[in-house]
Write a structure and sequence with these properties.
Layout lengths: L8 H19 L4 E6 L5 E10 L8 H22 L7 E13 L2 E3 L9 E12 H13 L3 E7 H9 L9 E6 L4 E7 L2 E8 L3 H12 L3 H10 L5 E5 L5 E5 H7 L1 H18 L7 E5 L8 H9 L6 E3 L21 H12 L4 E6 L2 E6 L6 H7 L15 E5 L2 E5 L8 E4 L2 E3 L10 E5 L11 H5 L5 E5 L2 E5 L2 E4 L2 E2 L11 E5 L4 H8 L8 E4 L2 E4 L6 E4 L2 E3 L10 E5 L6 H7 L7 E6 L2 E6 L5 E3 L2 E3 L10 E3 L8 E2 L19 E5 L2 E2 L5 E2 L4 E6 L2
Parallel strand pairs: 1-6, 7-12, 12-13, 14-20, 16-25, 21-30, 26-35, 31-40
Antiparallel strand pairs: 2-5, 3-4, 3-5, 7-8, 8-9, 10-11, 14-15, 16-17, 18-19, 18-20, 21-22, 23-24, 23-25, 26-27, 28-29, 28-30, 31-32, 33-34, 33-35, 36-39, 37-38, 37-40
């Protein structure tokens, strides 16, 4: 066993069996054992847990124990999430309570307290799997079951520094064979734990090297230094010699200084880079000559502030007469007490054929075992497939991947959930789920079915097919799309869209500008017909439709004036040479596109018509010629006569509706 780590399980188990046999001769069969581990590769983490106690009965010792252990589990979860390597797993080997709180206020004890909430804050210590597993393997070979586990400095501090003394800033150092374990108290609690991989074996090795001694011989010689003025040693060559203890101490002084320096540096590191008020040293290695003096120099403390504590310093402990007051026995007694006061009981389960040991904080569940096996929550579900993003007609579209299938959890061969309870010896298997498929789609999946339609426009047949492009190139409905593709499609069955796609000019409404105002005259707008039914350009067509244009006869100026609601006109209907003529109040001359025209002039869409305001006056005979296209006969005589209702009338004489007007040429 080197530096607190078991290197040869078989050899260590042999020593355990030897000690077990001696104890069984005195006390009978032994099956269970409480263990304190050295702080090799020690990790510390603070944790807290708050529970609602409103309306509950008074707090008991068992309630407090469960609350403390729940806080320890929270510390374990924090540690597991912070370690960098996924293969490492840390076992809790002990904890100390930092504070209790009742309704948010710090309190000394929760026993028989009542309130709304109770909180326990702890500092928990953890060791890597390899350290604890080697201990368990050694015990198994010795046919022993580990009942409880703690840490060496925790075991020592529980019996050496009671809570009443923890308001002082004190360092406890447990110097064993391979490691020196350290605990620091301050502000009524244990604030930190640590270790250095240097202890009594360092001194033994120095003695062995200097005098060429076998390690066990050097160990016996080291232990004699404290009580003997001269020690007898026999080197590996068989030469025996007697050496003054002072000479031996001088020879190993560099190793003593190295041990003191390592311990002092770790104490300062754990104590915010300053020396504590005092140092207590226990363990067999504490008897190393001049060690306390060297510590006082390096910690800049008086020698009387650094003391070796033996069994006589233990509080509330009654010792048998045959037990010697040695600092080496402080930790073993502390182990026994810690196993009763704050036990960490373990249970073993198998997760995916790997043995996992859990400390029993409560009724343990499958989820606790998966957490202890360092199986992350994301491993319980298959990964979703990769999605893809495309641009569809200029708009971003996201196509998700397929969801993964969740893993299946088996507890002793039966389907279970993470909340199912487990017991010692259970077997848990995690059957991995399947990952979801990556997103895939065709253009048809994105835009649906698009069937071509056949229509006829003014006697010409057309087949309207969808226009589809992928990344600027023509594509089909069954074309597979990929991430970041740009898809464009057009397949409107709206009449105006079809006409635009075919390059056929749509029917323009009949609009003219009258007195600088645009007027829509629907009665002269060309009509679109589907068969015989008028339709609008917004009409959706279907297969087989026949579309035709119906062009209207363009109107005259007079017809437009008559159709305008906002032009007030006076009309009169007369006959001229037997032909009926309707006259409107003759305004000032009407202008079409800036030129004077009569009322019979044809008007086209887009023309500009200027109609002066009406002037109320009687119609004259001469006004008739504004509304008819009349020319003199080629055989007409030079003299003529104007008649109204058979009576002579002049050009500027008034006429009225119903009058019969004539012009007669004299022979």
């Amino acid at each position: 066993m080197i530096d607190g780590q078991i290197h040869n399980i078989v050899s260590v188990a042999s020593v355990i069996c030897e000690i077990k046999s001696i104890l069984e001769e005195r006390h009978g069969t032994l099956k269970r054992v409480s263990v304190a581990a050295a702080g090799r590769a020690l990790k510390t983490m603070e944790g807290s847990m708050t529970i609602d106690i409103a309306g509950k009965s008074l707090f008991t010792s068992e309630d407090i124990n469960r609350l403390e252990l729940a806080a320890v589990q929270q510390a374990q979860q924090k540690l597991l999430s912070s370690v960098s390597t996924t293969d490492d797993y840390y076992y809790c080997v002990g904890y100390s309570v930092l504070h209790y709180q009742l309704d948010g206020d710090e309190i000394g004890s929760l026993i028989d307290q009542a309130g709304r909430s109770a909180t326990a804050e702890v500092i928990a210590t953890f060791l890597p799997r390899v350290v604890v597993e080697s201990l368990l393997a050694s015990l198994k070979r010795a046919d022993l079951e580990m009942e409880a586990l703690t840490l060496e400095p925790i075991a020592a501090i529980n019996v050496l520094i009671p809570p009443s003394m923890r308001r002082l800033n004190v360092a406890l150092v447990d110097i064993g064979a391979g490691t020196s374990d350290i605990a620091i108290t301050n502000n009524n609690t244990v604030v930190s734990y640590g270790m250095v991989p240097i202890a009594g074996d360092e001194i033994t090795e120095a003695l062995s090297n200097h005098y060429l001694l076998d390690f066990p011989v050097a160990e016996l010689a080291k232990r004699s230094l404290a009580n003997e003025e001269t020690i007898t040693i026999s080197d590996i060559l068989g030469f025996e010699q007697q050496v003054p203890s002072t000479e031996v101490i001088t020879a190993i002084k560099p190793s003593i200084e190295k041990l003191a320096s390592s311990i002092a540096e770790e104490i300062k590191r754990l104590n915010n880079n300053k020396s504590p008020q005092a140092v207590m040293v226990v363990g067999g290695g504490s008897l190393t000559p001049h060690l306390t003096k060297e510590l006082s120099i390096r910690l800049d403390l008086p020698e009387n502030r650094i003391g070796i504590r033996g069994l006589d310093a233990l509080s509330d402990v009654t010792l048998s007469d045959n037990i010697s007051s040695s600092p080496a026995l402080v930790t073993p007694i502390g182990i026994a007490i810690a196993a009763r006061r704050a036990p960490i009981h373990y249970m073993s389960v198998t997760v995916n054929e790997k043995t996992i040991r859990l400390f029993e904080l409560k009724e343990m569940t499958v989820g606790d075992a998966l957490l202890a096996a360092n199986i992350k929550a994301r491993q319980l579900y298959g990964k979703p497939g990769l999605g893809m993003s495309i641009m569809l007609n200029g708009k971003l579209m996201t196509i998700p991947g397929e969801h993964g299938r969740s893993s299946e959890i088996l507890l002793n061969g039966k389907i279970a959930s993470t909340k199912d309870f487990i017991v010692n010896g259970d077997d848990i298997s995690l059957v991995p789920g399947s990952n979801g498929k990556d997103a895939s789609a065709t253009i048809r999946d994105l835009i649906g079915e698009m069937s071509p339609i056949n229509i006829t426009i003014d006697g010409t047949k057309h087949t309207i097919t969808p226009r589809i492009e992928r990344n600027g190139k023509q594509a089909e409905l069954d074309t597979i799309v990929h991430d970041r593709d740009e898809i464009y499609y057009f397949h409107s069955t709206k009449l105006k869209d079809i006409l635009a796609e075919l390059g056929i000019k749509t029917t323009m409404p009949f609009e003219i500008i009258v007195n600088n105002k645009t007027i829509l005259l629907e009665q002269w707008t060309p009509q679109l017909l589907n068969g015989r039914t008028p339709i609008s350009p917004e009409q959706l067509l279907k297969d087989g439709d026949e579309i035709r244009f119906e062009i209207q006869q363009p109107p005259t100026v007079g017809e437009i004036i008559a159709a305008l609601d906002d032009v007030k006109l006076t009309t009169a209907t007369v006959t001229f040479n037997g032909q009926s003529v309707t006259m409107t109040s003759s305004l000032s001359p009407v202008l079409l596109n800036g030129k004077q025209v009569d009322h019979s002039t044809i008007v086209h869409s887009g023309d500009k018509l200027t109609i002066p305001e009406s002037v109320q006056r009687p119609f004259l005979f001469s006004d008739v010629f504004l509304f008819i296209d009349y020319s003199l006969p080629k055989t007409a005589a030079s003299s003529y006569e104007l008649l109204r209702n058979g009576e002579p009338i002049g050009f500027n004489d008034p006429v009225f509706s119903g009058d019969a007007l004539e012009i007669k040429f004299k022979p």
